[in-house]
Design a protein that fits this description.
alpha+beta
Length: about 550
């Protein structure tokens, strides 16, 4: 019968439930067969009766989970009917009913009433409401995520299309560059031919002659100035007592030419001066023929005339004389043709003119400079179009990068939908506004100055990017400076909600504001670890 006894199940020793120990660690509080127990850190073995004897024996304090004997340890409240909780062991047996321990197990029996049934019922009711809000908000958030995914695909399409368009436009720019270069070369050759015309050559010859006259004129002016200085010195320094007639005649002649009074008459009575003035005024003025320039005009306007762009003047003249006479049927026939026939007519006209140029009836088109201008304009337009497409691609790449990382618009891009969304809250005489990822303002209702409370600068700087806490705060900084104070700033604190709304506005310190509100973007999907199926000990 002994073999059969070996097949019978052996009784299993049941661990004694230790006060203050959470269920996950109850198995570790089992005495050995010899009645001893090892500290949780393995540093020491003590008699089992030393556990919860209100004396700290283990270095890690693990022998006193149900008393306050060991520092820096925790007491577990079972809270049947609600959720278990840990409190610092220092609060065990202090005569105070801790709200975390609704079962009163942290105090001696009879000190605290067990209210876990009521607390648990109220908690579950509140939690059910929160879950309802979270589920509704999560559905709205899913539309934000869908928007972000759609925006990503759109941006990827823009990048792909732009890349293809850039390739095409680069080829077009290269083609137009070649045309412009060749046209400019032909235009330069045509211009050199036009410069050989007698009219242009005569203009250049007249210009050179005027420059030469101007140069000689300036030389004569310098010589006259020097001579006048010499004669002035002679006039004021000679001695009339010597009766040197040659010197006297020279002085008289210079005084007459320069319109000066005789040096010996200076200072005489006013009547003599008046007579001299009348004689001077009675001299006839020089009459300048119509069209000729005065000395003032020569001095002022001649340099401008000599700076004339004769090449441009030549081209303007060429366009003027080469323009078809009024009523020319060849060049004005298009005005009388139906629109459908104009392309064929233009092709025929170009072919005819080209044939006439080939056999020498007419010279090649005199509009080479105009063609060069048109070619250059077409090249510039193509370059501008290329730059525009390149800018569109660059912007799309930057926007896609922001959507792809978790720093700007969230792990799934859920905040992109709200970029630029403005929320307002009326309070007293002001309306407070924050435009997400933009600027925040304080606007008076009855007129006055609107103050800038800051522009978006970052998410929560105290949290790790990608975590839910990171997106619960937005920082708005560098607002309008307060009088005798700091720059205005705003801390926007958000929680999960079914609406994007501001609930409260407060000025925590001088010119430092805090808004609180809700947003569906913070409502994460309800999961097994975060919802009704969450493992809670009831």
């Amino acid at each position: 019968m002994i073999p059969w006894l070996l097949l019978l199940p052996l009784p299993v020793a049941r661990a004694v439930e230790v006060v203050g120990v959470p269920p996950s660690l109850q198995a570790s509080y089992t005495p050995s067969a010899s009645g001893s127990w090892k500290c949780l850190d393995g540093s020491k073995e003590i008699p089992w009766k030393f556990v919860n004897d209100d004396s700290c024996d283990c270095p890690d304090g693990s022998d006193e989970p149900g008393t306050g004997a060991c520092p820096n340890t925790y007491f577990y409240c079972r809270n049947e009917g609600h959720i278990g909780a840990n409190i610092p062991s220092s609060r065990v047996g202090d005569g105070l009913c801790e709200p975390e321990c609704c079962d009163g197990s942290d105090e001696r029996p009879g000190v605290c009433e067990n209210i876990c049934v009521e607390v648990g019922k109220e908690y579950r009711k509140k939690r059910a409401e929160e879950l309802k809000i979270q589920k509704t908000g999560a559905k709205i958030r899913s539309t934000y995520v869908a928007f972000a995914e759609k925006e990503k695909k759109r941006l990827e399409g823009v990048i792909q299309t732009s890349s293809q368009e850039i390739t095409v436009r680069e080829k077009e720019v290269a083609r137009l560059q070649d045309i412009a270069d060749r046209t400019e070369s032909l235009s330069a050759a045509e211009l050199e031919y036009k410069k050989e015309s007698p009219l242009y050559q005569s203009l250049i010859e007249h210009r050179d002659a005027l420059k030469s006259l101007q140069r000689e004129h300036k030389k004569h002016l310098e010589r006259e100035k020097t001579l006048s200085e010499i004669l002035d010195a002679l006039r004021t320094g000679y001695n009339p007592n010597y009766q040197d007639m040659a010197v006297l005649d020279a002085v008289r002649g210079w005084e007459y030419l320069a319109g000066l009074p005789h040096i010996n008459d200076v200072g005489k009575d006013a009547s003599a001066e008046t007579e001299d003035d009348e004689e001077t005024d009675s001299e006839p003025e020089e009459v300048i023929p119509e069209g000729e320039w005065t000395a003032v005009q020569l001095e002022k306007d001649l340099p401008k005339l000599l700076k004339t762009d004769y090449v441009s003047l030549l081209l303007e003249h060429d366009e003027h004389v080469s323009a078809p006479a009024e009523g020319s049927m060849l060049f004005e026939l298009s005005n009388y043709l139906p629109d459908a026939l104009i392309p064929q007519y233009e092709d025929f006209k170009d072919t005819l003119l080209g044939w006439m140029e080939t056999i020498g009836v007419i010279r090649p088109s005199v509009g080479m400079s105009t063609e060069a201008t048109h070619a250059q304009q077409a090249l510039n337009d193509a370059k501008n179009s290329l730059r525009k497409v390149e800018k569109e691609k660059q912007t799309a790449e930057e926007d896609l990068q922001k959507l792809s990382d978790s720093i700007t618009f969230g792990p799934q891009g859920e905040w992109k939908k709200l970029d630029g969304t403005c929320l307002e809250k009326d309070l007293g005489d002001y309306t407070y506004e924050v435009c997400l990822f933009g600027a925040s303002k304080q606007k008076p209702k009855k007129g006055g100055t609107t103050f800038n409370l800051g522009k978006f600068s970052s998410w929560n700087p105290d949290a790790e990017p990608g975590t839910p806490e990171y997106y619960e705060k937005q920082m708005y900084t560098k607002g309008t400076k307060c009088w005798n104070g700091p720059e205005r700033s705003l801390l926007l604190v958000m929680t999960c909600g079914t609406e994007n709304v501001i609930h409260t506005v407060a000025e925590l310190e001088k010119c430092q504001y805090q808004f609180t509100g809700t947003s569906p973007a913070l409502c994460l999907p309800v999961s097994e670890t975060n919802g009704g199926a969450k493992h809670e000990e009831l």
